[in-house]
Design a protein that fits this description.
This protein is an all-beta fold and 116 residues long. It is built from no helices and eleven strands. A hairpin with a 3-residue loop joins β9 and β10. The chain is globular and about 40 Å long. The model has no long low-confidence stretch (mean pLDDT 96).
Length: 116
């Protein structure tokens, strides 16, 4: 059974940093595209960043230059390093693993709150 477990969320002050992790099990991790999404209060889920199996990355304009997505295939884990956090980054963050035309899996979400 495929399982994605997220961790690293919490409360941080504006300008601070957090690193989210998404550990996968029960999956051939290397062939999946990894991504992070978020859903703020009253908002739809929005794309944040993606990383291909080869390590190619892409970011939403709202986080470009502040967030970095990475992956460790040996640990079957995707990371999201978030720097210079702003109150508008407050949201539930979700990881996703997608193998186009095959399967998609989502994590349970982790809350990130940016507030003084």
């Amino acid at each position: 059974q495929v399982q994605l477990v997220e961790s690293g969320g919490g409360l941080v002050q504006p300008g601070g940093s957090l690193r989210l992790s998404c550990a996968a099990s029960g999956i051939i991790f290397d062939v999946y595209v990894g991504a992070w999404y978020r859903q703020g209060p009253g908002n739809q889920r929005e794309f944040i960043a993606t990383i291909s199996s080869a390590g190619t990355t892409n970011y939403a304009d709202s986080v470009k230059g502040r967030f970095t997505i990475s992956r460790d295939n040996a640990k079957k884990t995707i990371y999201l390093q978030m720097n210079s956090l702003k109150p508008e980054d407050t949201a539930v963050y979700y990881c996703k693993l997608n193998r186009p035309g095959y399967s998609t899996h989502w994590g349970q979400g982790t809350q990130v709150t940016v507030s003084s």
